[in-house]
TrEMBL record, chain A:
<keyword id="KW-1003">Cell membrane</keyword>
<dbReference type="GO" id="GO:0055085">
    <property type="term" value="P:transmembrane transport"/>
</dbReference>
<keyword id="KW-0812">Transmembrane</keyword>
<dbReference type="InterPro" id="IPR000515">
    <property type="entry name" value="MetI-like"/>
</dbReference>
<dbReference type="Pfam" id="PF00528">
    <property type="entry name" value="BPD_transp_1"/>
</dbReference>
<feature type="transmembrane region" description="Helical">
    <location>
        <begin position="263"/>
        <end position="287"/>
    </location>
</feature>
<feature type="transmembrane region" description="Helical">
    <location>
        <begin position="210"/>
        <end position="231"/>
    </location>
</feature>
<dbReference type="GO" id="GO:0005886">
    <property type="term" value="C:plasma membrane"/>
</dbReference>
<feature type="transmembrane region" description="Helical">
    <location>
        <begin position="12"/>
        <end position="33"/>
    </location>
</feature>
From TrEMBL, chain B:
<keyword id="KW-1133">Transmembrane helix</keyword>
<feature type="transmembrane region" description="Helical">
    <location>
        <begin position="106"/>
        <end position="128"/>
    </location>
</feature>
<keyword id="KW-0812">Transmembrane</keyword>
<dbReference type="InterPro" id="IPR035906">
    <property type="entry name" value="MetI-like_sf"/>
</dbReference>
<feature type="transmembrane region" description="Helical">
    <location>
        <begin position="140"/>
        <end position="158"/>
    </location>
</feature>
<feature type="domain" description="ABC transmembrane type-1">
    <location>
        <begin position="71"/>
        <end position="275"/>
    </location>
</feature>
<dbReference type="Pfam" id="PF00528">
    <property type="entry name" value="BPD_transp_1"/>
</dbReference>
<feature type="transmembrane region" description="Helical">
    <location>
        <begin position="254"/>
        <end position="276"/>
    </location>
</feature>
<dbReference type="GO" id="GO:0055085">
    <property type="term" value="P:transmembrane transport"/>
</dbReference>
């Protein structure tokens, strides 16, 4: 009774929460429930028919799906290995800049690509990688390398993903490491200087060890999104010549679902991805909490 | 001492090259878009100065109803969408950050569940279809009306407002809605500016939902037109029938027009960039991995 009275008293609070909650229920909970389509056959009219694991059986025996999984894992691994360390290195370099004006210039410029849409970035890179007049090939030619049409080359396109991902995110992602560096006590560097430590020694023996926990945390949190592999990038960089080596889970779901209208089958593929994603996110969240006390939420 | 100087020069040089890697491609496209029609083939991918300065490419682009219409659509989606984002997010943030009520823990748990369990693309698509929102800009405005991560960031901003101020208002008899509109909102301008930029940049750059929900070209936002034109290389929609409007002796360069469209899509971000640097970074750090 007391609780009821209190709830009535607080009606304004519930009223203020009503719209936000309603939004989540309609646009989040209902489609979440709609994932049951993975176990059904889609009917335009009338109820969908339950078909159990049918779509999953087709999915797991399809060679297209196997190649999509392989692409997703390869592209994600390449990004973890080659993209992940760059912002750390960049933050160490920026930290060595003593002139605040130059530092500000560098930071303002390298953060910029993070705010551009993937469509714009694709436009910029298509022009940059143009086989005849593109900047990359001009520089390559200067060093005696032959021109390559990188966007349509199966051997190169995944590396284009890696490099354009660095171009877009390395600057912005260095912020978190710079913030961690700022928190290191200046006294440590003073003491090291008195002991005659060089700048390089200060970097390896003071800065890097202090970055360790941030690096581990960011690394683990990134793992939680391993199955994404960067949908927007692939979607905008993809073309028919390279589709076999770049098609990832999310683009596959888009193509067979929205493109071909195989709604139920596409939902099965995306549910499969979602389950792995949740296991990864929950797993990394709890591991991260244990190691560093910092989680996804 | 000499070694120290050398390493410093190398570090400064690497960083300078990094900034060139960002700036040169963008400035090259700017120069290309300002190059006189018919002369784009004289521009190399590293040139930063237009060959024969001309605004004709922009005149053509901005006289094309598909482009001007898409700019209007994008401004509307970004403006109305961000406003909706801020209203819903701030209301929820006030209630969850500064009040106590029965069921609060349940709501917070619900939000975390929402954050972890993302629905797939297809059910979302079918929902929009069922709601009759296909081909309507409303579908794009309602999409991501609240971002849970951003809600948590705003809650942290709201928690920083001193309790005494709220207490004083409470003694004066202000109800919760009044406290939210008259005290919380005015005092949280930096937090709201940060969130406004988060949402605004997201809205302006959104293209994918528009690609799948909107099939009528006159309702496309700018990013979709840009994608059609630059990524999918569909030039007929832009120059095809428009060329007739101009003196046929003018041969427009496809590359210059593409570059111009890219520039039009970047301009609003460049205008806001000083504010983005001021607010965005701070907010992102507070919302990201925290101590």
């Amino acid at each position: 009774m007391k609780a009821l009275r209190r709830m009535r008293q607080d009606w304004v609070l519930y009223a203020m929460l009503a719209l936000p909650i309603l939004y989540f229920v309609i646009f989040h909970v209902i489609p979440l429930y709609g994932m049951k389509l993975a176990f059904q056959d889609y009917r335009i009219l009338g109820d969908h028919v339950w078909v159990g694991w049918k779509h999953f059986n087709v999915l797991f025996s399809s060679p297209a799906f196997a190649s999509v999984m392989q692409n997703t894992i390869i592209i994600s691994l390449m990004k973890i290995i080659f993209v992940f360390p760059i912002p750390i290195a960049l933050s160490l370099l920026i930290n060595e800049v003593r002139s605040s004006k130059y530092r500000k210039y560098v930071q303002s410029v390298v953060y910029l690509p993070h705010f551009l849409s993937w469509v714009v970035i694709a436009g910029i890179w298509i022009s940059l990688l143009n086989p005849t007049e593109g900047g990359v090939n001009l520089i390559g030619n200067f060093f005696g390398l032959p021109s390559v049409d990188y966007m349509t080359s199966k051997d190169h396109i995944r590396w284009v993903f890696v490099v354009s991902e660095i171009w877009r995110s390395a600057g912005w992602d260095s912020i978190i490491y710079l913030a961690a560096i700022m928190k290191i006590s200046p006294g440590l560097y003073e003491a090291a200087k008195i002991d005659g430590a060089t700048r390089l020694q200060q970097m390896t023996f003071i800065t890097l060890p202090h970055l360790y926990s941030t690096i581990v945390t960011v690394f683990i949190l990134n793992l939680g999104f391993f199955m994404n592999a960067g949908f927007d990038q692939v979607f905008n960089f993809m073309n028919d010549s390279v589709i076999s080596v770049v098609d990832i889970l999310d683009t596959y779901v888009y193509r067979i679902g929205i493109g071909n209208g195989q709604f139920a089958y596409a939902t099965a593929a995306s549910l499969f991805k979602g389950v792995i994603g949740i296991v990864l996110i929950l797993g990394t969240h709890f591991i991260s909490k244990r190691i560093s006390g910092k989680g996804v939420w | 001492m000499r070694r120290l100087e050398l390493s410093k020069i190398i570090i400064y040089a690497i960083l300078f090259l990094s900034t060139l890697a960002v700036l040169v491609p963008i400035l090259n496209l700017l120069a290309l878009s300002l190059t006189a029609p018919g002369r784009a083939h004289l521009m190399s991918g590293l040139d930063l100065i237009p060959k024969g300065f001309s605004l004709m490419n922009y005149e053509l682009l901005l006289s094309n109803p598909l482009i001007t219409g898409s700019i209007v659509n994008s401004v509307w989606i970004t403006g109305a969408g961000t406003l909706l984002n801020l209203i819903l997010t701030s209301m929820a943030a006030y209630v969850l950050a500064r009040t106590n009520f029965i069921g609060k823990k349940l709501v917070l748990l619900f939000l975390i569940v929402i954050m972890v369990f993302e629905p797939g693309l297809i059910p979302e698509y079918l929902l929009v279809k069922d709601l009759g929102l296909m081909n309507k800009l409303t579908a794009l405005i309602l999409y991501k009306a609240i971002n849970v991560y951003y809600l948590f960031i705003l809650m942290r901003f709201f928690q920083d407002i001193p309790e005494e101020i709220l207490e004083a208002a409470r003694i004066d008899g202000a109800g919760h809605f009044r406290m939210y509109t008259r005290i919380m909102m005015p005092l949280s301008k930096p937090g709201l500016a940060t969130l406004g930029l988060f949402y605004g940049v997201f809205r302006w750059n959104e293209y994918f939902r528009a690609t799948i929900y909107i099939s009528e070209p006159s309702k496309w936002p700018l990013q979709v037109v840009l994608r059609q034109f630059v990524v999918r290389k569909d030039n007929t929609s832009i120059i095809g029938n428009q060329n007739n409007l101009f003196d046929s002796s003018v041969n427009f360069d496809f590359a210059s027009l593409q570059a111009g469209t890219i520039m039009i899509a970047i301009v609003p971000l460049l205008i806001l960039y000083p504010f983005i640097l001021k607010y965005y970074a701070k907010g992102a750090l507070e919302g990201g991995v925290k101590d």
